[in-house]
Amino acid sequence: MRNATPLLIGVCADLIVRGPHAYHQSGDKYIRALLHGDTPVVPLVIPALFHRLSKDCQAALINKLDGILLTGSYSNLHPSYYDEAELEGDDAERDPHRDASNWALFDSVIAADLPMLGICRGFQELNVYFGGSLHHRLHEAEGLMDHREDKTQPVEQQYAPAHAVTLCHSGILSAWFTEQHRIQVNSIHMQGIKNLGQGLQVEARADDGLIEAFSRPESSFLLAVQWHPEWRPELYPQNARILAGFVEACQNWRDKRSQA
Ligand SMILES: N[C@@H](CCC(=O)NCCCC(=O)O)C(=O)O
Known about the structure:
Layout: E1 7-12, E2 14-18, E3 21-25, H1 28-33, E4 41-46, H2 55-64, E5 67-70, H3 96-112, E6 116-119, H4 121-129, E7 133-135, H5 155-158, E8 163-167, H6 172-176, E9 182-185, E10 192-195, E11 201-206, E12 211-215, E13 222-225, H7 237-259
Parallel strand pairs: 1-4, 1-5, 5-6, 6-13
Antiparallel strand pairs: 2-3, 7-10, 8-9, 8-11, 11-12, 12-13
Helix pairs in contact: 2-3
The structure holds the ligand N[C@@H](CCC(=O)NCCCC(=O)O)C(=O)O.
The ligand N[C@@H](CCC(=O)NCCCC(=O)O)C(=O)O binds near residues 73, 188, 189, 190 and 228.
């Protein structure tokens, strides 16, 4: 019999300034995505100040969690994290609190081997955390497609499938999508992987060669995707499959921990 206690899944937050105040926020669609399946899940927003907690407080939180979801965000990771400077005229949104908080969070999550799903900005952060680097502007890079959404379109259109990715053999995704060698994904990003981080395994590529998903075989479960599986899982079964796979990994991890 499976443990029916709800899973506790941490969701990272952005620090968003609104008027004179700052707020720790995670997008509603990420939080609701965790509630989509039949498995009871309590999503827990982790404020973007994990790095400011004492080691004891960090450990107390990590010990309670069964998994971590890294959200997308319109802000860009500061390029100093991959030893580069901002490009001339770079007016990207930044979120130094999220950058610092997630770096400390990754240290703890990797050490505890908690399951982790990274989405879009979260995917880019994980790549850099493991020593990889990013293209600052894919649309200016030789031979790469423009992976940005058309902001003049309604949001349903912006998050609709935009291009195909080819799944690599013997990965997490190819095991979930056994009937499909290629799947359609949405595309809402300006940056993307230039060099892949150490110990990461490519899971999917776009037709221009851009890495769109990776996993980390050394981890109990670490999957990161450049697209947005949190978007409308009730409409897109493929998104529901990815979310269900992540939640199942969290369940498996908890079962294993409780038997240890
Ligand atoms: N800023 C990066 C990451 C893009 C990203 O995460 N977009 C998400 C948009 C908002 C959301 O859906 O939560 C880039 O542009 O490459």
